[in-house]
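Escalated from tier 1: adenosine-5'-diphosphate holo job.
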Amino acid sequence: MSENIFDSLIENDSLFMNRGAFEHGFEPQKLPHREKEVRALGENLVEALRGHIPSNMLLYGVPGSGKTIVTKTVLKQLKAKGRANGTAVKAYTINCRTVDTKYRVVQALANRLERDEDVKIPFTGWPTDRVLEEFRRRMDRRGGIHVIVLDEIDHLVSKVGDSIIYNLTNLNLELESSRCCIIGISNDLYFTKMLTPQVASRLAQIDLVFHPYGANQINDILEDRVLRGVRSGVLEGGVVGLCSALAAQEHGDARRALDLLRIAIKKAQKMGHDLVDKGHVRLAQSQLEHDQLTPVLRTLPLQQKILLFSICMNEDNGLRNISTGEIFRTYSEVCLRIMIEPLTPRRISSLLNELDSLGIIIARNVSKGRGGRSKQINSAIPESLDVMAELRDSEPLIVEASKGKYRLQRPL
Ligand SMILES: Nc1ncnc2c1ncn2[C@@H]1O[C@H](COP(=O)(O)OP(=O)(O)O)[C@@H](O)[C@H]1O
Ligand SMILES: [Mg+2]
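Tier 2 regenerated the structure:
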């Protein structure tokens, strides 16, 4: 073969200058609109450079509001300054979405301080207290101030409770020649409600809220990446603005905006276009919605699937603003067909609310006169997604159900 198969593939990256600028691990040089948060972290952590113990902190805000990147940037500079000054500051971050048991968190922390002569901590088997003890010993051996960051801490605590935070915030009482501070980062705004009050007040000595970005702020974040990552003149006017606006609607999520822009450029590239326009952004948006919703649909419990199946059958039949009564009628027929005990209308009503909060349907309350209330239901799933196929693929009983004949109301 004379040609290398990668030649044409490499050329195909023609619209990007540096695709890395859109990847999740990218470290931007500037962090627009997070100056206040950077300063708050810095003003606390500078204590470590002075040899004092910084306060524990709790950072929280919606996903994509810059918590991880702000912390990472500040810690990097803290360590650099510590090295330059000869002050021993050790900082480590554990992502509790992947490291999500008490044992593994402490083990991961202790491993950061491992030396050749140390016994290896096994993946399981030691009592957790022994791992904790070994971690303390290694901290003291190293000395100085240790900054321990637990990112996505809400995930850990909702899984295993808060005793790990209790232990870590207690370390300073037992350490001899070192000290530490704990920084927790949570995507859940109500995280402290998961904690016992004592642990909450110890962890959140300082709390720092990351507010969702507005469309203009996201725009500024994107502009910087565009300069670094995209060939000039490739984006049509309005493309960056549309990505920002869509991501701002999506709880002000900068990650979403970066994903939208990256996918839009890739789509244009794949289609052999030289320019990226708003149409590509729309395509990217529906792909993201698709990727987000598909796993949710596929893992719905059986009753929810039957209910959604009943709604979609009525919609496919042309009905809109479907009443709960109508849905219940179809649902009962489906249950009969597949020999499943139907739930009561009351339970169905609450399942409809759940589907609504998952963003799968929109349930609107309407009054029926004389004080009666009812819901009108519409599906909220983008057209590009074949719900029926997803339901059938993931649930054999729905395959069975779709073979049935049902008495559906005709659209008026
Ligand atoms: N102010 C900012 N400036 C530049 N990039 C940002 C900014 N805020 C967030 N980002 C980028 O957006 C994405 C999501 O940010 P991240 O810190 O991971 O959010 P969170 O941890 O709050 O979910 C990352 O790629 C990050 O680099
Ligand atoms: Mg994060």
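The pocket of magnesium ion (ligand 2) is lined by residues 67-68, 151 (CB under 6 Å).
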